[in-house]
Amino acid sequence: MHPVLKLVVQRVALGLLLLLVISVVIFLGVEALPGDTAQAILGQSATPQALANLRAEMGLDQPALTRYLHWLGGILTGDLGAALTNKADIAKSISSKLGNTLFLAGSAAVIAVPLAILLGILAARYAGRWPDKVISAVTLTTISLPEFVAAYFVIFFLTQVFPIFQPVSLVLPGMGFWEKLHAIALPVIVLVMVVLAHMMRMTRAAILNVMQSAYIETAELKGLSPMQVVWRHAFPNAIAPVVAVVMLNLAYLVVGVVVVEVVFSYNALGKYLVDHVTKRDLPVVQAVGLIFAAVYIFLNMAADIIGILSNPRLRHPK
Amino acid sequence: MADDTLLDIKGLVIEATSYPPGEPPKNVTLVHGVDVNLKRGRVLGLIGESGAGKSTIGLSAMSFGRGGVRLTGGTIHLNGREIRLADAKTLRSLRGREVTYVSQSAIASFNPAKQIMEQVIETSLSHGLMQKPEAEARARMLFKKLGLPNPDTIGSRYPHQVSGGQLQRCMTAMALCPKPDLVIFDEPTTALDVTTQIDVLAAIKEAIRDTQVAALYITHDLAVVAQVADEIMVLRHGRMVELGDTGQIIKSPREDYTKALVSVRGIEHTEKPPAAPILQVQNVTARYRGTNFDVLKNVSVDLPPGQTLAVVGESGSGKSTLARAITGLLPPTSGRMTFNGRTLSPDLAGRTKDDLREIQMIYQMADTAMNPRQTVGTIIGRPLEFYFGLKGAERDKRVQDLLDHIEMGKGFADRYPAELSGGQKQRVCIARALAANPKLIICDEVTSALDPLVADGILKLLLNLQAEANVAYLFITHDLATVRAISDKIAVMYKGAVVRYGQKSDVLEPPYDDYTDLLLSSVPEMEVGWLEKVIAHRKMESAGN
Hints:
The complex is a heterodimer of chains A (about 325) and B (about 550).
Chain A: H1 3-32, H2 37-42, H3 48-58, H4 64-76, H5 90-125, H6 130-144, H7 147-161, H8 177-183, H9 185-210, H10 214-221, H11 226-234, H12 239-255, H13 258-263, H14 269-278, H15 282-309, H16 312-315
Helix pairs in contact in A: 1-15, 5-6, 5-9, 5-11, 5-12, 6-9, 7-9, 9-12, 10-11, 12-15, 14-15
Chain B: E1 5-18, E2 26-39, E3 43-47, H1 54-60, E4 70-78, E5 81-82, H2 88-94, E6 99-102, H3 106-109, H4 116-120, H5 122-126, H6 132-145, H7 164-176, E7 182-186, H8 194-211, E8 214-219, H9 222-228, E9 231-236, E10 239-245, H10 246-251, H11 256-262, E11 279-286, E12 296-303, E13 308-312, H12 319-327, E14 334-339, E15 342-343, H13 353-358, E16 359-362, H14 376-388, H15 392-405, H16 422-435, E17 440-444, H17 452-469, E18 472-477, H18 480-486, E19 489-494, E20 497-503, H19 504-507, H20 514-521, H21 530-544
Parallel strand pairs in B: 3-8, 3-9, 6-7, 7-8, 13-18, 13-19, 16-17, 17-18
Antiparallel strand pairs in B: 1-2, 1-4, 4-5, 9-10, 11-12, 11-14, 14-15, 19-20
Helix pairs in contact in B: 7-8, 14-15, 14-16, 15-16, 16-17
């Protein structure tokens, strides 16, 4: 087997194992929460008989291991169970909301990632000079603003001062692609502001680190322009650390945008999770938690695999 | 200025800012008014020890200052125009087109992420000198001329896929591809094994001759530069010492400093007679964890007390691995080692404190072998505390004693390693090893990173200490001149096995085995025309076979 393929397979296997471990952790974490689900549903005045019946009906009287295996088996077959509160099928509820989440995260990523890398390259090219300082100052300012403050700024300017967008990101089924994009413009802007600095700084640092290498001096002595040196010789060797940070930020865009979703009343996974946490709807919390974990693991695994593939020593062994 | 003058440097002054620890930054002058005149198609050797300013002067031909070095005075005329004060755009147009550069380490100087061909032809394309097919054809022609294997396909490989010697030749091809007027060779063979160096040197020389390019050839090795250069300029502390034809510099140097350089390695050492060994290595085989080939194969050597066993070989031959096995850092998979009559435990954990004390090590890079935040006194005092429990005034007295032994005198105990020169640092490492009162010191390439004259001083010191303290040395080196200067016994290693072993006089006497012959005949001699003689001899031999 080609060594790269072997490394990639190992990495994927490790990711799956990690996911399994996390499913155990999530299950145990929810299990350890104080309170009794049956009690929560039936309220304080429920009779012991009614509680026992409900427990039996929900399988809560089974040992934890049995319930875990049952839950795990369900996940593998696409059955995430039903929500306690409204008996709705969780898998169904999640799939529409996950689509919205990915649409928002994807739109923000498509703008933020190339922009951050471009700014990082420019900052590295002009390290220590005014373009570098301006780029750093602006991106560090936007990352330092709490999301909700940034969100209200954006709402104020782009709906009140310049009424271009709607303050509520209402996405309905049947809307066209551009219509949807227009609707989520404001949260996208806020998210770009939040994730830009981290990726930009990492790109800059990774390139400057590579710029110390002897082969950069070789490139300079070839009479290449500074931009050619950075783009052709430094950046290809700085990909792995940049990708790692990009993936962390993508993960954040998927799982960490609850505040932004709430501010813009955007109907997606984060909001769904928060709603059900307040209702103590543990099956939903478990399911969403597992999906978020899966997203984190998948993106980091992708970062590792891209890092492996970007290394010529691994791609072309002796 | 005559028409055929390519490079004319007058009164060059080069400065840099140094940042001594605990003091304000200060300006230092690296080059004090040096003149260089180079005609088209000629080769000038720049020679000197580290700090002589040879690389700095070489790079000034491209008006380039490495790492904040500033070209502050004098004039540099290249092809008739002044370039010291030229703007960035002018410099970019001449770098890589009129002047190119070959560095000491091609492995570091090639971009690991790009194929060799792309990098070799990059300049020709970016300066608009050639179209891609033409540039690639020229590159393949150069690969062939430089004796690279598979010249038609080697360009599609990545730098890590070819050997160090091959990559050094690829870098020469990269420098010659845009048809420059001048190539700066900055120690192009210094990092190579001696048997590889000779091939690369011959390839470079032939390429220079065939392409009629002018060259500045920078090196610290007079024997090497004598093979390539028409003229030699000797530099010291940023000043010119002597300039002359290669033959004159080698045969009849005028200045004392040049004479010292020419006669370096004049140490005479009489071989001691065979005696009962203090260290016995018997049939030792070893491999690194997780690998499936032996890095040491059935190695057996003996070393009598107070004598020196030199272990010679190229990089990767297993010399340092043998040292790791003896010190217990790499437990052998089979074989046994005895020291001073007792069996040595294969791994470090099983060794007694006396085992540890009696076998000490000195490393190649004295820099990294010392804690930069400890004073010399602390560094040397540590084994005194650890092995002998010496404290306070008693310890300080012994530290000063040891410093006297290594000829460093008073005032050094309070200094930090950063305040010492390369040779002084290595002396401190020697003192630290001596502090344990060892019976055996393993010296791993201890003079390789030092300038020839400094290295000579270290070797003399080691010999004196051996005579006084009757300590045995296992001396690992790739340098045969060092071997002649210091050894009583020699083991020649090749691919993990000892291929020749015995008393110095026997090992260095013919008849040789093939490998030892190759090794010995590859050592450059200080003689004009030596390279051609050896190459012609080898061609004849291979034709005869």
